[in-house]
Amino acid sequence: MIPGRPNDALAIGYAYTGISNDVTANDITLGEPGPRREEQLIEIAYTMEIMNGWTLQPDFQYIMNPSGDPGQDDATVIGARNTFTF
């Protein structure tokens, strides 16, 4: 991705989870607010080799309709992972 950094890697992902009709019907029966329908996620991560045996991977996730609930605010998750290989 970046010249002179052959061991780095970029990852971009998308996930879609549909909630089954049975679960949606159960939500309606129980009077749950806004029956669950779907959840979607976009993720971007970049793995950098800091030095031989050590990588750092910052990660960003944006989750739409967490738990499939349209009444929930969308969520942003930011994290990082260190990996050491001996």
What does this structure look like?
One of its GO terms (cellular component) is membrane. It holds the Pfam family OprB. InterPro entries: Carb-sel_porin_OprB (IPR007049), OprB_Porin (IPR052932), OprB_sf (IPR038673). Belongs to the OprB family. GO terms for molecular function: porin activity. This protein is mainly beta. The chain has one domain (9-84). Helix content is 12%, strand content 52%. The chain is built from 1 helix and 4 strands. The protein has one helix at 21-30; strands spanning 9-18, 38-51, 54-64, 75-84. The protein has a 4-stranded antiparallel sheet with strand order 1-2-3-4, with no helix packed on it. Strand 2 and strand 3 (54-64) form a beta hairpin. The relative contact order is 0.22. The model has no long low-confidence stretch (mean pLDDT 92).
Mean pLDDT: 92
Q: What's the total count of β strands?
A: 4
Uncertain runs: none
Element string (H = helix, E = strand) = EHEEE
Biggest sheet, in brief? 4 strands, antiparallel
Note the total helix count.
1
Question: What's the number of domains?
Answer: 1
Strands side by side in the biggest sheet: 1-2-3-4
Helix/strand structural class: mainly beta
Give the CA-based shape.
elongated
Cα end-to-end separation: 25 Å
How much helix is in the residues?
Answer: 10-25%
Radius of gyration: 19 Å
Q: Proportion of β residues?
A: over 45%
GO biological process, one term: carbohydrate transport
InterPro entries: Carb-sel_porin_OprB, OprB_Porin, OprB_sf
Family: Belongs to the OprB family.
GO molecular function: porin activity
